[in-house]
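Colleagues,

Please find the record for the four-part complex below.
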Amino acid sequence: MSTELELPMFTNTSEEDLGGRWGMVIDQDICTGCQACVAACAMENNIPYVGEKDAAYGRSLHWIRIERFWQDAFPEVKMTPYQPMLCQQCHKAPCEPVCPVFASVHSASEDINLQVYNRCVGTRYCSNNCPYQARTFNWRDYTDTRRQPELTTLQNQLNPDVTVRRRGVMEKCTFCIQRIRHSEDAAKADNRPVEDGETLPACAQACPADAIVFGRIDDPESRVSQAARSARGYHQLEELGTLPRVTYLKGETDGHRG
Amino acid sequence: MAIAARPMLPAKAHAQEHEDPREHLMHDPRPRGEMNAMVLESMHTAGWRFYAAAGVLTLLVLTCFFYAWGYMIANGLGVAGVNRPVFWGIFLVNTVFWIGISHAGTFISAILRVMKVEGRRPFTRAAELMTTFGLVQAGASIFMHMGRVWLGYLLFPFPNERGLWPNFHSPLMWDFLAINTYLLCSTMYLFLPLIPDIAMVRDHATGWRKIPYRILSLGFRGTEGEWKNLQTAMNIFAFAIIPVMFSVHTIVSWDFAMAMRPGWSSSVFGPYFVIGALHSGMAAVAIVLFMIRSTMKHMKYFIRAEHFNLMGKLMLIVSMAWAYFYFNDYLVMWYGGDKWEKILQEFTEKGPLGYLWFAMLIFNIAVPWLILWNRKWRSTPWLLASVGLIINIGMWLERYIIIPVGLTINRMPFTWRLYVPAIEVFLTIGTISLFLLLYMLASRLIPIIPVWEVQEGQAAHMLRKVGKAEVSTVSEIE
Amino acid sequence: MSEPISRRDFLKLASAGAATTAVLTGCGPASRYVTREPYTKMPEYTYNGQSTFYATTCRECSAGCGLVVRTMQGRAIKVEGNKNNPVNLGKTCARGQVTLQGLYNPDRIQNPGKHTRGANSWSSGQGSGFQEITWIDAINEVSNALSTNEPDEIAFLLGMAPDHLFDLVSELTTAIGAPAPIRFGALGMFEARKTLMQAASRMFGTRGLPSFDIGEAGVVFSFGANFLETWFSPVAQTREFAKFRQRNPAGRGHLVQFEARMSQTGSKADEWIAIRPGSEAQVVLAIGRLVAESRGLPLPPAFANADVEAAAAAADVPSGTLVHLAGVFAQAARALAIPGGAALAQSTGLEAAEAVLALNALVGNLGKAGGVFMAPLAPIADAYHAPASGREMMEFIGKLNSGKIKALFIHGTNPVFELPRALGFMEALAQVPQVISFSSFPDETALQADYVFPDHHGLESWGYQQVATGANAAVLSGSQPVVAPFYNTQSTADVLLAAAHLPRGRAGGQLSQALSYSDELAYIQSKLGSLLADGSGFFSAPEIDTFTAYFQQHGGWWTMDDRRVAPPTADVLNRTFEAAPAALDGDGEFHFVPFVSPILAEAGANKPWLQEVPDPTTTVMWNTWIEINPETAERLGIQDQDVVRVVSPMGSAEATVYKYPAIRPDTIAMPFGQGHTVYGQFAEKRGANPTDLLGTRLNAAGDLTFGSMKIRIEKTGRTRELARLEGALGVYGFDAK
Amino acid sequence: MIKKILEAFGQPLGRIGLMIAMLTVLSAAVWGIAQTQRAPEQPIDFPHRLHVGLGIQCLFCHPGALRGPSPGIPTQTKCWGCHQQIAVRGTELPKLAKFVENDQAIPWVPVAQVPDFVHFVHRPHVAAGLNCETCHGDLSKMTVYENPQLMNMGWCLKCHRQHAQDDSELLTKLTDCSTCHY
């Protein structure tokens, strides 16, 4: 099939397309762990709540979670800087090659990892292979009003630009691709380029500390590119060579003393 | 060898060791008609025990297999114990386990056939049946594991208007294809040697029962030409299926070895899984032989201590090989000193599930090594069978430790959680019952003993006097 | 999938045909059978599939953040921040984000009705304690209550936010000569807001709220002020904090937090000093003294009585630490000290607050960048009206108990849940013959009402809100409906006005003259009128209608210039304090630190997604936990998942233990926000309420000393799993549950 | 008994019976699929033919197509805007009148509808110069709208590929999963 070649497939990267397209910078020094991003993400992306029992069993569907650990014991105890963890949109994503049905594919045009819900058969291989554990799975029909009548009113707020997932489907952060598409379309309508900061994922838009910066990393002048050049910058699990598109700025737990 | 053994053991014990070659099946021939009659009788004698057992199993299959699975499909995988980070649970444990079971069949019937190990003759079919039915369970387990099994057809490469194909980069895809191939091959390989026996049954069957046998026996009449072709076909398959068998479990291991996870991405997984498969497979054969022998008529004639002895030896060797591979991998992991793999090892040993690890080592290594070294013990059917059972539990635990326990540890410590099986337990029982049920039915529908092979062997064997001792010799049949 | 599927269509869906295709194409439910219902009369500016954005104000707390709500086909889809509003500059907190789940909450009260006290049923039906009535009758009831009772027999209890309803009711009460409305909110109680204000007025001689310029400060000492969570204006302060850390002229800011239990704010601190509850005042004074010394200043009378050793002993921290900290504070170019919440909720709370202000005066940052200011007074506000303090509430309760109050109107607050049970508000309600609640949700206070006349949800209603603090400008944040009301609800302001206009009784006559506004909108316009002349706003208009239109379009009106005022610095340091340890209640072994859940706050528990948003420090979801230091737990033989009972002389509460590494071993902490007995399916009978344990002690400013309780802890022998986002295995080791 | 059955299948008649059985099953499936593709019944049998015949532009009633994703289904205000001028005759207009006087929304059932996991935006397609007929067929020949063809992914891709021609960059963009699925 000649069409086979035109499909977005897992391909080895040649060095020139390592530039990437969309990127994010998260400053852990000013992230206050306030969870605004978590809530905003859920509201924007029609993420269902799973209830206490499933949440307790590690089935909550947060696309972004805020991690923190402890160092030492009382009274020297310190909390490690809050670390928002979301899909890193790796350029060489471990989740992509392992999906048997191309449900987890690389977007050749946007250079992010996609999850094609209607293609997903739920082998959960991608989530196993994701070193960031950034993928969540619909263990039940959390959006079925026949099972949960209380949803009938709550579902009035469902975002029509985002697919509502049913049971057995893998899902993850999309960098709010629907917003990217919308701004691209708007820009095209009055033919101009998409401006820096015009597209913001829900998390970056909500973040009160403005700790999350989003934009085009192939544009050296964009705010995100400049932030990414900070000396405090690093990538999660860089040693794996997944080329993540999210740059973290180290939080300085011990500030200058006096 | 016999001479060497004499001073070691008292004569009495010595006498019970089937040293006398006349006690070997091959040297204890019976007339064809009689032997056929025995096999046929074993087929259509089904007492109340048989029906009771079949009934219970059917009930279990209906509830624990079909109903439980249906319930899971309707309500999603939430009814199972899987969570984040343990996205893979017992379903894949079962898959690997059943594929392992299925390996013995091919090994015994193909490799031993190729190597002309005469002892194999009476129970090749018993083993091949295991292969086929085991694979059925493996396949079912894979589909149970899928979140949207109703879209399973997307795994098949079929031309469609979307121009989309399955992802041949995915080890899961290879796995899927490999298992299908293996199922196909092993079924055909089960069928070929079956033809003469089916023909035999056809000749004795009466009434409507004759029809299916007539169809299945493909009009085999036993002319020389037919035998020749059959032999050729079987030889070709025997050789061809061996690489398939090795590749299948290697590919299964790649599901893990290719993944980017601490403890999984290991180059030794391929051969290690193959050996592991044989380990559980052999053990399973031992169990099955025991059950056949003790439940079906006339089987004490066909399946004798010598065969258990043979199986025992095989199990011992395989167990040792398995131990070698396991500790090889373990040593490499430990010496490599990767941060995450160290943590994983610590977790498997000292973590809340550490007892599983110790149990596995005891079941897979200690028990067989302690019992199987002794010919007398390993020749004792019930003992060998129980060792087989223990080994199977051990191997199941081994897969459990690789999958759910291994998945608990990943590179994001914030997500580490334990896994508590839920409906998987019932579905596991379901697959086991289905396997047993299929096997029971098969044992009454087709000759569980390849009569012609036994007869062939008996015809080929004779005792020759060498000095005082009588030595068993076998001559090629052209 | 998003819209409900009608029965007929569902049958179709289930038909063999659809099923086959669904399977064959992998298309899930065939959504073409889902009927979309367009507006009957589509407003000309809306198109299908096109979003319309409305600017309004967040009502989740009284900070007054501006929102822009995305709506589609008459439905609110997403809440976003209003970029122009100076309070939040386009940002929101988690609670603001989840506002929509309040709007679409399945448990909203949908009709006005007569309600039998204590009956948890909110729609008509035989045997149900709720009898739906028409709005006409409802208005009659209100009018009766206003006219038949003597003026001083009428009382209004309103929410914490100084909004248009408060102004309207104030006018109403003055018109009929009834006592002025009382505003109450748990957040105000846990902030000890009155204490801070009183300290400011006593030190500076000016009324109003002080505001602290965190963003420009070099070193910030926060004495119990959880300014990143619920204190005053969290979103604004979080923005300031980010500036303080990374975009700071004075270099990366250094935060030191003094508190017994590490709050979310404390977790961001560079140094977290776990001082013993009750020792705050002493510590502040000691640091003041040390700062004066290390700066080589003459020791001001304010810190003369400070005893460093005693303070260190009382606080249970090495005196060396205090010396070191004083050094940090003294040497900093721009040092700032903030008094807040827990530190002021002690018998010595007022002294502590004053001492902190004195400390600021000592380093001379009053009215300077990175220092202390007085928050600008909101436009059209005559003064900043603080919510009621504990004392005022106790007096109010006394009045209710005395039976003087014949009719009580409650709107926007839930004192039965929020006030300490020991104050007996619920029992007091029983003494009131007629309680009318305007609550949108079946909360504990509405449960004790005779009538429930549900107000619109915040996103369905008009209004404005005077912003108390958070912005440098003077801000009046505007609200407008972003969706048509979903249920048969009515704006409380309209109900009151309608009632006032009914020509009946003595009150009626006066009222209809006094409150001559045709409706809520007219009232708001009349208030906005005074701003027309004011040219200092970022927009102005020739006449009121245009002005109102702009007001709604931009989500409010605010000045362009910085309206903060520098407090007078005169003789601030000449007052003297005696450094006495705080008085404690109860004889328990442990100090009790109740804190407001940063996620749920006082009214978030009925929103499922807020329940599922993990607590920042413990990552617990969906329930209440009790924080114990691991050592203490070890000593008491308490494991993870054990359910324990904390007991104070006033009451007890049960919840699952969380072994919290960052809390004093002699302290037990518990979040406030759960433990509702009613309040909808998501909140009902979930968790426990720490206010059940609190006492009635007041500090000098009349605020409740919720930090003064000493409690006992008992095992119950039961265990209950706590829903945590974190995997305990990874965070606390393999032997953790 | 069983023997008889088995033998029966051997007979030509039995064979034919078997065939028929198979055919019925097959046709049932086909019928099912056809069912889902047939236009559902509408609250009002709206005669597109008539209105198009009167020269009313598609975009007059479906203006959304110019601006964004969905062209929109006209509300009763839109219909009544003209029809209050026109005598209420025939079988359908009374229905409309009824909706208007009860002030109910007309529960139109969308026909040209893609599943929810497909995000189709009309604007770029209109901007690319496609006529409504290209996808929706000639409305001047229909009363109640029916899809002229299966609107499935193959159909979309075919057109996208044609449009891209040999512009590889455009092709990647137009065949990218994220163009429609998110």
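Confidence is low (pLDDT under 50) at residues 1-17, 254-258 of chain A.

Comments are welcome before we finalize the supplementary table.
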